[in-house]
Amino acid sequence: MKLIEEVGELAEAIRKDERMKEDSIKGTIEEELSDVLYYTAMIANTYDIDLENVFKLKEKYNSKRYGFNIKIDK
Ligand SMILES: [Mg+2]
């Protein structure tokens, strides 16, 4: 549920175009993206999911399905 809350906060920050200025991160897109990533990682850890591997598999799937390719490996 925290993830959903953070996505809502991210949407609000984007709507207001709140960007980080120097060290002031509170309520910004940068802060909320970090929060969303944090809770995403927490959920992955809870279910013992290798997010990097899943992301690569999903990109392969999307590439075949939608015909585009995003290079995520070095
Ligand atoms: Mg937040």
Fold and architecture overview:
The mean pLDDT is about 90. It is extended and about 40 Å long. The protein is about 65% helix and about 0% strand. It has a domain at about 1-50: Orthogonal Bundle (Helix Hairpins), CATH 1.10.287.1080. With about 70 residues, it is mostly helical. The chain is built from three helices and no strands. Bound molecules: magnesium ion (MG). Magnesium ion binds next to helix 1 and helix 2.
Layout of SSEs?
Layout: H1 2-15, H2 29-46, H3 51-66
Bound molecules: magnesium ion (MG).
Number of strands: 0
Assigned CATH superfamily of the domain at 2-49 = MazG-like
What general outline do the C-alpha atoms trace?
extended
CATH fold label of the domain at 2-49: Helix Hairpins
- Which hetero compounds are present in the coordinates? magnesium ion
> Helix content range of the residues, please?
55-70%
Number of helices: 3
Query: Oligomer, anyone?
Result: single chain
The overall pLDDT average reads 91
* Secondary-structure element series: HHH
Query: Do you know the CATH architecture of the domain at 2-49?
Result: Orthogonal Bundle
